[in-house]
Design brief:
Elements lengths: L1 H40 L14 H91 L4 H24 L2
Helix pairs in contact: 1-2, 2-3
Amino acid sequence: NILLIGAAVGLLFGTGTALVVARSITRPLKSLQERMLDLAADPLAGPLMQHSRPDELGDMARAANFFVNEIGRREKALRKAKESADSTLVELRQAQADLIQAEKLASLGQLVAGVAHEINTPLGIALTTSTVVSDEVRKLNERAQSGSLQRSDFLRFIDRLGEGARLIFTIPHAGA
């Protein structure tokens, strides 16, 4: 009987000790698991508190804290890089819009220069012709006033006037 009672007491003591040892392992593991799941959901939830333990659970908590810190650091670096890329994209789009505007202005400038040339050429010819005709009229008038007007002077005046008229009438065809 004593042997049986001793064995039963030993078995109960062994089972109780096993349960205490098992709980001392499973509770911290369960707590570590829950905190790691919290960190997975929110990396800013803070470090795992079990990191001060000198055992394997402490090693796991320190490793998890290191990974969380590293992920946070890399996430910040990625955000900064994204913001920089976004800023550069905005600047690029502005530069593109400025370039398009500059090209439009350059095209407009070329168009205006072409139109000005097309207008200035006939105007220049008309102005030159009218100046020559005006000089010829003045010379003819002076000779007529002085009484030295000759038929050849008058015929030359008519030729010059006809030449000027032809120049003025052919101006629109010069640009074509």
